[in-house]
């Protein structure tokens, strides 16, 4: 992680507060950024903060809500963006722990970025699965008991979340759940998405 010069950071607008800290829109050396300030972690100094690119096009959840007639290729690209992001995190032994549509933001090129690392964990050095509960587990279309029966809290849990909360919600998004949408075409759509994801 690169250390930045705090003198070049200028906070402009409060955005939100989450489990990880307060988020502000601002500028770093003249470039628009999002600053996660006042980290809510005991192992950080009180003046610590994280700076990332500013993603102002909203969450994937709101995008799907506002765009009801997306082509399958667009949904596949969203899925690939998330899958590649997860693959990168897992290659660094980072488990996100809360993959859902509200934790996926769109950049100005409509590419999906994973956010909200407040529930993330590093895997044990011996590669063992983590056993503690992580993430909010809200927003699923299946009961929480099934999440814990079928999923887990390590990398497999992230993959399970990806399938249940991302792929599932992208296809069966609440306002899409009309008889004409939930038709015989849906299994074929899932098959096409699965095939494209396997191709990378």
Automatic annotation (TrEMBL):
SMART domains: S_TKc. It comes from Oldenlandia corymbosa var. corymbosa. GO terms for cellular component: plasma membrane. Signal peptide: none annotated. This is OLC1v1021303C1. GO terms for molecular function: ATP binding; protein serine/threonine kinase activity. Residues 1-200 form the Protein kinase domain.
């Amino acid at each position: 992680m690169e250390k930045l010069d705090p003198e070049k950071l200028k906070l402009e607008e409060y955005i939100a507060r989450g489990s990880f800290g307060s988020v502000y829109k601002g500028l770093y050396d003249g470039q628009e950024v999002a600053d996660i300030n006042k980290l809510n972690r005991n192992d950080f100094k009180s003046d610590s903060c994280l700076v990332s690119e500013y993603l102002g096009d909203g969450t994937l959840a709101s995008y799907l809500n506002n765009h009801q007639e997306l082509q399958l290729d667009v949904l596949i690209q969203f899925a690939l963006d998330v899958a590649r992001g997860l693959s990168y995190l897992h290659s660094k032994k980072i488990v996100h722990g809360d993959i859902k549509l509200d934790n996926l933001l769109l950049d100005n090129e409509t590419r999906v970025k994973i956010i909200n690392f407040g529930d993330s964990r590093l895997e044990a050095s011996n590669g063992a699965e983590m056993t503690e509960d992580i993430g909010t587990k809200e927003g699923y279309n299946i009961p929480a008991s099934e999440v814990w029966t079928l999923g887990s809290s390590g990398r497999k849990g992230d993959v399970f979340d990806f399938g249940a909360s991302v792929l599932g919600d992208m296809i069966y998004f609440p306002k899409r759940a009309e008889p004409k949408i939930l038709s015989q075409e849906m299994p074929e759509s899932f098959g096409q998405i699965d095939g494209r994801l396997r191709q990378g």
